[in-house]
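Form 7-S
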Amino acid sequence: MRTILCLIVFVSGWLIMAQSCMRFRTSDSDATKVFNTAGVPLTIKVLKVGKHDLHFVMTGNDTLPTIVFVHGSPGSWDAFEDYLKDKDLLRKYRMISIDRPGFGYSNFGKALNLQDESTVISALFPYIKNKKPVYLVGHSLGGPMIVQLAADNPNSVDALVILAGAIDVSLEKSEHWRRTLKSFPLRYMIPGALRPSNDELWYLKTDLIKLKPRFTEIRCPVYILHGDKDPLVDYGNLAFGAKVFTNAAKVDTLTIQGANHFIPWMHYETIKKVLLNLY
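Output:
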């Protein structure tokens, strides 16, 4: 009886903790303080798109060309915090970083597939339109997300920068165990942002199959950067990208020697140089 009681207490405690920890997000108030300290004004917005919220932040002059950053899985807009504060980038760009649906403060916990995510995020383009170029930067799962966005909004996107992006369905491993974790009650044992992350990674292989014929629709320039020691997203995605964007204005690839998956932070200057040369 005592063992059963201890088990109930443990499971109950874990369920409570799992709903409140590992959310991988920064509160709006904390973010504002951090950016104020850095001397960079931060604008925080929420767009209502049907029943969905799209939470995002902006820095820089809204008359400049725009860079939109799209994080991986899990994550939130603050994955690109350092870029948003960078004085060199701010001289050239307005910068926006979003919480993808299911993460941060965009309906946290309710992940969507790529096409449904694109429908929500696409509402951003008319909102930010200023007759200047718009460049999309996506890391990891943010890579296929920006390809989907460009295919769905061909007149709104002027270049793609794919950072360690998972775009080749043939390189995705079979992860049938994710389906088990999606089932009740196991899904509620997964802490924080790892739950919507598991959901969207389960969708990903089907999403990439659907996305594959649309690579030829991309006509803007495409820049692909990948580390050759990436243990999470196969380096082969770079070679795949070099072949499939057949109608893009150009495709530039860059192998970052010895780099792992976390190139937005560990190879900041390399990526910053690419961004500065977009416009």
